[in-house]
Amino acid sequence: MTAPEEPLIVIAAVPRKMEGKVQKRIGDLVAMWKSRTAGTGRAQSTASKARLGKGLKVKKERKEREVVFAWMDADKWSKWIKTMYAIEYDEGATALADVPVVITDHKVCVVFFFPRISDLLTHVVQRLIYWNRDSQGNPIQLSKRLLDVVQDVVDGKLDAKHSESAVERLARVCRVFSSFYMHKLS
Q1: Ramachandran angles phi, psi of 91, nearest 5°
Q2: pTM above the 0.85 mark?
Q3: What domains sit in the chain, N to C, each tagged with a CATH number?
Q4: Which residue from 104, 159, 168, 186 has the least number of CB within 10 angstroms?
Q5: Which residues, in sequence order, are CB contacts of 77 under 8 Å at separation 6+?
Q6: How does pLDDT run across 144-168, given as a tens digit for each residue?
Q7: Is the pLDDT confidence value at 35 over 60?
Q8: How confident is the model at residue 60 (pLDDT cuts 50, 70, 90)?
């Protein structure tokens, strides 16, 4: 995903027979989220960062992330959802509590390499991470509690999982370094 706003996306994997129920619940959650965020739909977090100025000072920095709520046809996209987010859904599910939910972050990161001051190589990589558990380790559900989980994600209180395997992440790092060395050779 390459949206310039770099939103967090809340995805519910929905069997077709539950679309109506889930659409209504997501609509209710969006309304609650808008109310909670004063209509912006953006999650806010504060993070402390050391800054140089007159002496070393700690400055509070406001971070905002847009949050998008979506549902996905779990019948049609079951293989992709399982591969990307380890979601296995129950085809016989009829309760909203049985609908699997993940919060995804495919934020684009810029990586800088400074081998020497005169050389600068910038490489853009994409994080493919997600959360599927709340702070108590329970699966995320389509309930009012979901809004607290989104805030925990923005505040950095939850550990993320990678959509890529360790081998895929290693291959990505190797690609970054090989592009760096190819640049050095040219």
Answers
A1: -60, -25
A2: no
A3: 8-47+56-105+128-162 (3.40.30)
A4: 186
A5: 13
A6: 999 999 999 888 888 888 876 656 6
A7: yes
A8: very low
